Amino acid sequence: EAPPPLVELRAIHAGYDGIDVLHGIDLTVGRGRVVAILGPNGAGKSTTLKVLAGLLPASSGDVVVAGRRINGARADDLARRGLCLIPEGRGIFPNLTVRENLWMMTHRGPARAEVEEQAVARFPQLGARMDQTSGTLSGGQQQMLAMARGLATEPALLVLDELSMGLAPIVVDDLYATVAAVAAEGTSILLVEQFARIVMDVAHEASVMVHGHIVQTGRPRDLEASLSQAYLGG
Ligand code: ATP
Q1: For residue range 23-51, what is the model confidence (pLDDT) as tens digits?
Q2: Which is it for strands 7-16 and 60-65: parallel, antiparallel or unpaired?
Q3: Could you tell me the distance, in angstroms and rounded to a whole number, from the CA of residue 22 to the centre of ligand 1?
Q4: From its record, what is one biological process in GO terms (predicted)?
Q5: Distance (Å, rounded) from C-alpha 103 to C-alpha 105?
Q6: Whole-angstrom Cα distance, residue 63 to residue 54?
Q7: What 3-state DSSP class applies to 162?
Q8: What would the pLDDT profile of 215-229 be if each residue is shown by its tens digit?
Q9: Is there a contact between 1 and 156 (Cβ–Cβ < 8 Å)?
Q10: I need a labelling partner for 206 at 20 to 30 A (CA). Which of 48, 78, 218, 231 fits?
Q11: What percentage of the chain exceeds 90 in pLDDT?
């Protein structure tokens, strides 16, 4: 019997102040897969990730991790189950150094030296900046640090919310090359982006989200019609 997918969202409704902004989201992330949620500003992409990460309760529907329904699990419980969310805005501590940001992740993972080594191996630019205050890094370097922190927990699923936000295209390409490398090592990835081009080469599958609905799921290349409609209509 095949093992269940790593993560499934089933008919998720969720929102704020009693008003749903997600209207029945179904999404599956298989082991070792790179799955993208694409859609315009306000479509509900971040809200979907918040429900998955245990930061926002669903008003109905199920969150299933490795075949187990885990509705209402707290964020730290989900982290123990191998889910790591890197939020929009990146979630690093700007007043701490790069090294201090990395060291914070070692209580449930490998030792400090190992975390530093892995971070530098993946992101050589961080090597010379270990003692730099994180808030003074470039945007791309901050995203590298956020990813290095997330990967230090050795997650089964890395969730990336708008990795590309505010970054130059060449920096984004670089970060996505790392995403592809991480996926090739067997880590599943769920990523959210507003703009589709950059994920076409990295994602195995993608869902187009508009106004709290997923309007199509498929290979990224096959979604161009629904994507252009999503942006024109959105
Ligand atoms: P973005 O690119 O802006 O992050 P998104 O697709 O991630 O877009 P969400 O952030 O999930 O969209 O927002 C979906 C809807 O929920 C929007 O109408 C937004 O205004 C609303 N919303 C998001 N966060 C909150 C909140 N904390 N309180 C109330 N409404 C919210």
Answers
A1: 999 999 998 899 999 998 899 999 999 99
A2: antiparallel
A3: 10
A4: L-amino acid transport
A5: 5
A6: 9
A7: coil
A8: 999 998 888 888 888
A9: no
A10: 78
A11: 62
What's the token pair of residue 161?
A: 């919310």
Rounded distance between C-alpha atoms, residue 20 and residue 130, angstroms: 43
- Please give the Cα distance from 96 to 233 (Å, whole number): 42
Asked whether residue 234 carries a pLDDT value surpassing 50, the answer given is no
Question: Would you state the structure tokens that stand for residue 113, as one six-digit string?
Answer: 């030296």
Task: Return the structure tokens found at 225.
Answer: 């019609």
Cβ of 207 less than 6 Å from ligand 1: no
CA-based nearest residue to 123, from 111, 137, 106: 137
Among residues 138, 158, 151, the alpha carbon closest in space to that of 49 is found at: 158
In the structure encoding, which two tokens stand for residue 24, read together?
A: 């029945």
Residue of 12, 21, 160, 210 to mutate, ligand 1, most atoms within 8 A of C-beta: 21
